[in-house]
Amino acid sequence: MASNVNPTVRRRRLGQELRRLRELKGMTAEEVAERLLVSQSKISRLENGRRSISQRDVRDLCGVYEVEDQRIVDSLMQMAKDSRQQGWWHAFGDIPYSVYIGLETDAESLRVYEPQIITGLLQTRAYADAIIRGGSPEASEQENDKRVEVRLRRQSRITAEKDPLRLWVVLDEASLHRVVGSRQVMREQLEHVMELSQLPHITVQVLPFDVGAHAGINGQYSILEFADAADSSVVYIEGVTSDLYLEKPHDVQKYTVMYEHLRAQSLNVEQSRQLVERLAKDYAR
Questions:
Q1: Distance (Å, whole) CA 268 – CA 18
Q2: CATH class of 97-284
Q3: Which residues form the HTH cro/C1-type domain (predicted)?
């Protein structure tokens, strides 16, 4: 599924390097923006990898930072070129969370807390279809069909024979009881979760109702980690009109500790499977 060049990751790595060069020069983003006659927000977006970086941008920034080693300039220029290539998801048109898909495509491991629904990577087609259509009632049928296909395409990251994504999911018990689509859809969905949870790289735990208040009470989030040490971990929080990406070590650490608390408060793996199996049988009645 992943191509040799992931544009999202290239932009992110390039942005990190440009930030490093700016800091070595002892300049603020505002000072750089003034020198280049652009907005400070543009410099920030370039550095956080949320915006495509042109080779001209790289050339201008290297000039401001007085980078004398042409090999460094050439390397950054190539990264800028690579970052403008398209990932597989671009074939589906404008996807609201395309930045996240790029990160997920390159991630080595993913930890998810999901309080309301079965998380996307574990969804069956019927469940995904019902979730997407229910959550986007004003979208066209064609648009919703496209979103379903993108969601299913993402799942090849956990079924790949070579280097599959290591996935750890904490599901709130509420997600197992909410009838999405129909009782038959729910039965098939829970059986699918049980099947996937048998894979050695996938762990599923259920956070039971009787825990009460817990570390994930504020809502859904994911933590992405990468094999390359140059790529810092990212906390992803999905929104309705915009998403939040947290990369500062302090923020990532805080959410990581919260996730450890969620794991500890959840049923263990075997208990979770037993609960999912029992509810799947209930839906079959």
A1: 44
A2: alpha beta
A3: 18-72
For domain 9-83, give the CATH number. 1.10.260.40
Between CA 251 and CA 235 the distance in angstroms is: 8
Residues in the chain, overall count: 285
Element containing residue 281 per DSSP (H, E) = helix 269-284
Take residue 279 and report the two structure tokens written for it.
Answer: 């509810």
pTM over 0.90: no
Whole-angstrom CA distances from 146 to 95, 121, 128, 133, 140 are 9, 16, 11, 11, 10
Helices (H), 124-214: 125-135, 141-154, 156-159, 173-177, 183-196
Instruction: Domain ranges for the chain, please list them.
Output: 9-83, 97-284
182-191, 194-203, 218-227: least confident range: 218-227
Please write the tens of the pLDDT for every residue from 33-90.
899 888 888 888 888 776 778 888 889 899 999 988 888 888 888 888 877 766 666 6
